[in-house]
Structure formats: C-alpha cells, structure tokens
Amino acid sequence: MRDRIIVSLIRPTGKNKLMRERDQNMDRILESSKGMYKENAGNWNPQKGCKNGCMYCVGSFQRYYRRFWRSYWKPGKTGKGCEMCRDFRPHAHPEELARRSFPDTPQDKFIFVVAGGDIAFAKKAYLDKVAQVMSGFPKINFLVQTKCPRMLFSKACSFSQNVAIDITLETNRDEDYDKISSAELPSKRFQAFLEFRHPRKFVTKEPILKFDKDVIVSWMRRLAPSRIYVGYESKGLAKKFGFPEPALNETTDLTKTLGDECFTVYRKLMRKAWWETP
After folding, report:
1. From CA 230, how far away is CA 98, in angstroms rounded?
2. Hey, which of 21, 49, 142, 214 has its CA 20 to 30 A from 262?
3. pTM for the model
4. How buried is 149 (Cβ within 10 angstroms: 0-12 exposed, 13-18 middle, 19+ buried)?
C-alpha cells in the first residue's frame, strides 16, 4: 500500500491542477477496518447511552453491554456496575470530566468521544463542560459523532478546532428509514450539518445502505468533509434484519468517484451485500 497521505478537501480550479494531484500518487482511498475506527487512539465516555434504537446497534453493541455490564469495565473505569450503562439510557459520567491526560493523537489519530452512545442526548450545560475539557487539550484530536446533528447543534455548544464533528449518514433515502432507526432522517442530518459552521467535518457511511450516487456526491460536495468513512455492517446482522444494502460494485464505484473528486475516503469493511451471497 502506498504512503498514507491525509489531506483535506481540495477543490481543483482546473483540469491541470487535478491531473497534477493524481500524478503525485496521493492515495485518497485508505483502509480503516480495525474496530470502529482504525484511527481511534482511545475512547472517552463522559456521556453514555442513546435513544436512536438503531437495529444494528441494539443487536450487537447494546447486547454486548447488557451481557458484560458488570465485568466489562476495569476497576476505576467509567460505568462499572452502572445500570443506566447496562440499559443504554442517556446519562452523564461527570467523573470523567476530571481527566488530566489523553493518549497522543499523531497524524490522523483521534480520541473517540462518547463512543458508547450519542453525545446529542447530553444536556446543554453538561455538553458545554465536555467541550471545555476538549478545548483544554489543544494538541489532542477529538472525534464527536452523532446521528442527531439537529439536536446537537440546537444546544449551541462551541467546539474548538481540535474537535472533528462526524455525522453518520448511511444513506440519502428517508423512505422506510424509520424501520431501521428512530434517529433523525438522513436528509435532516444533511441539512443540519450543512448549516453548521465548523472547520473539521467527517461523514461516516456505515453501515452503508442503498443510496443514490448522484445525491451522495452532491451532498459531499456541499458538506466538504475532510474525511469520509464507508463500510458495510460488520456484526452479521444485515441478512437477519434484511438491511437494504447496495451491491458491492455500487459501493466501490462510489468510493472511487469520491476519491476522484479529491475527497479522502477511508474504506472500512467492504464485502458483498448479504443478498449477493448464495
């Protein structure tokens, strides 16, 4: 694999500039398939839980929490024996605000904030405190991810420049999405993210669902994210629940097109759709 050169979105001003960029072998389609994010240097969970009820999360991640909630956390770690953690109900763990250090985040690494839930469910006053802690570590990169950007941004929290804001955007199609999740509809997420002004934006398309390529490409042009993560459902639940997955060749074509558009694309689990396999 070539050297991994991570760049923000570049808007070429002409064909010659685009050709020069390609000639430099800047590989914009990268592999990111270890865990949730290969670039994750560590989790920080000052808030836990979620009300989105996503089918793929309830059947895997939340099931794991319920099974190991007493023993999963090592002594001194947030959530040991916490019944609200077990039930995945949104709640704060203010003891985590006392953190005095975080692992280093060189190059493209980051600390995944509220990896065990959706930060949008945090109360406004508490969210401000979480943001204040992150701003106190300007050399550390943080990742905040949500499926409810409208809810999150309505709290008018100010995030520092070392914080990347990421939305999950599995598809552009609103129809029947409520059968998969009670999170904000994809089009609403897109619009909320478009209106939000922040220098570091990521988009995660995982687990990827059937999409309209022209719409997705148009949305990415308007959002101008510095990273796009793309991957299939990885816990073996897609066939069980009949997820509307796109064909592998459609997803591969999308990542190629986005790469050609000079986006940095991280490919996570790439496999055939469940219905493509006998």
Report:
1. 34
2. 142
3. 0.83
4. buried
Answer whether residue 8 is part of any domain: no
Identify the CA nearest to 257 among candidates 209, 220, 231: 220
CATH label of the domain that carries residue 29: 3.20.20
Q: Structural domain of residue 249, as residue ranges?
A: 15-276
How do residues 85-127 score in pLDDT, each as one tens digit?
Answer: 878 889 999 999 998 899 999 988 999 999 889 999 999 999 9
Query: 263: Cβ–Cβ under 8 A, 6 or more apart, which residues?
Result: 9, 28, 220, 225, 228
* Domain annotation covers residue 4: no
Distance, in Å, from the CA atom of 162 to the CA atom of 38, rounded to the nearest integer, reads 19
How many domains does the chain fold into?
A: 1
- 29 strand-pairing partners: 265
Nearest CA to 269 among 227, 238, 226, 223? 238
Structure tokens at 154: 């309505």
Is the residue at 5 inside a domain? no
- The total of other beta-carbon atoms located within 10 Å of residue 172's CB is 20
